[in-house]
UniProtKB/TrEMBL annotation:
Gene Ontology annotations of biological process type: DNA repair
Cited InterPro entries: FANCI
Region Disordered, residue ranges: 37-58
Domain of life: Eukaryota
Protein name: Uncharacterized protein
Ranges annotated as biased composition (Polar residues): 42-58
Entry GO MF terms: DNA polymerase binding
């Protein structure tokens, strides 16, 4: 959360290079969150699939 505050503050700086870097950091954070979310949902579906297969085997 601290990183978000720092990046947010950098977005409103006067220097264009700092604003561009802050914007890039925000995009990278969003993309990494999406990857983590996708990995979590994939692992949940895999676990539920394994559970249903093991129930059918009994």
């Amino acid at each position: 959360r601290y990183m978000i505050l720092v990046v947010r503050k950098a977005v409103f700086r006067r220097e264009i290079e700092v604003r561009v870097s802050a914007t890039s950091a925000i995009v990278h954070l969003i993309l990494s969150e999406q990857k983590v979310g996708k990995m979590d949902s994939d692992s949940v579906s895999e676990i539920s699939s394994q559970a249903s297969c093991s129930q059918q085997a009994e």
